[in-house]
Automatic annotation (TrEMBL):
<keyword id="KW-1133">Transmembrane helix</keyword>
<dbReference type="Pfam" id="PF05216">
    <property type="entry name" value="UNC-50"/>
</dbReference>
<keyword id="KW-0472">Membrane</keyword>
<dbReference type="InterPro" id="IPR007881">
    <property type="entry name" value="UNC-50"/>
</dbReference>
<dbReference type="GO" id="GO:0000139">
    <property type="term" value="C:Golgi membrane"/>
</dbReference>
<keyword id="KW-0812">Transmembrane</keyword>
<comment type="similarity">
    <text>Belongs to the unc-50 family.</text>
</comment>
<protein>
    <submittedName>
        <fullName>Uncharacterized protein</fullName>
    </submittedName>
</protein>
Length: 275
């Protein structure tokens, strides 16, 4: 037999008087990590520049792989930029190994160019400073800023909202495009500079100016690939339009027998020996 005990309902505690005014306080929410990463672009640049002196932390093998692929499959290089966006939420490089290797090639090509055009030891250092800080970095800062502004102002699919082109990515695109140009004009051209290009023959003008055509054309093409890889940009094919002007200018130089490579050598001599 089971006995059932009768239980009384629970007694609620006496209600406290309700205040006439209720003040709600909201705790500040912690920022989203992805949003916080976007808001600390300056800290990312500082971290990037600080890593330039830490060679053991750089992936030089991967940077060298990118340099090779820039010649025969540049699309794979920008595919890696897309992977970086998915994993680290940034398009720009976070490893300065590519910039360090590019500096090495700038020094090596400047040594070869100085020997070919007959510069002294002191003038070589002046020439090297010009090539690194003016031709590569100075012009690169100007070009990257112009493309960064044009892309964010005119090429975005949504002008009012959505992601924007990172300035660091624009500078990386310039470095990617500058490396093949450097190898064509400052390395490959040296082999033919004295034997053919600097001679007073049309074949020299044709060979030298054709190298300039390929170098500038390839710079424009790799720049186009860099911005067309961004999914939030539209009508990036307009970046290929300067190719028409380059081709017309190339034909004019051949008609006028204007040797661009010889003019470049004369310009290097002038700015090195000028006070």
């Amino acid at each position: 037999m089971y006995s059932y005990a009768k239980t009384s309902p629970p007694v609620s505690p006496p209600s406290s008087p309700v205040p006439s005014t209720i003040v709600y306080t909201e705790r500040p929410s912690s920022p989203n990590p992805r949003q916080q990463a976007r808001l600390t672009a300056s800290s990312k640049r500082y971290k990037y520049l600080r890593r330039i002196w830490k060679f053991k932390q750089m992936d030089f093998e991967f940077a060298f792989w990118q340099m090779l692929y820039l010649f025969y499959s540049p699309q794979k290089v920008y595919r890696n930029f897309q992977y970086r966006k998915q994993t680290k939420d940034q398009w720009a490089r976070d490893d300065p190994a590519f910039l360090v290797l590019l500096s090495f090639w700038l020094c090596a090509s400047s040594i070869g160019f100085s020997i070919v055009i007959g510069l002294s030891f002191l003038n070589f250092w002046k020439f090297l400073i010009w090539v690194i800080f003016v031709d590569c970095i100075g012009v690169g800062l100007l070009i990257a800023t112009c493309f960064w502004f044009i892309a964010n102002k005119y090429l975005k699919a949504s002008s009012s909202q959505g992601p924007e082109v990172e300035w660091g990515y624009a500078f990386d695109v310039h470095l990617n495009a500058f490396f093949p140009l450097l190898m064509i004009l400052h390395v490959l051209q040296l082999v033919f500079l004295h034997p053919i290009i600097n001679k007073e023959y049309f074949i020299g003008t044709l060979l030298g100016n054709t190298m300039w055509l390929f170098a500038i054309g390839y710079y424009i093409y790799i720049t186009f690939l860099g911005y067309s890889a961004l999914p939030f940009l539209k009508k990036t094919q307009v970046l290929l339009y300067p190719m028409t002007g380059v081709a017309i200018f190339y034909l004019l130089t051949l008609i006028l027998n204007w040797n661009l490579s010889k003019g470049l050598c004369n310009f290097y001599h002038y700015r090195v020996y000028s006070p």
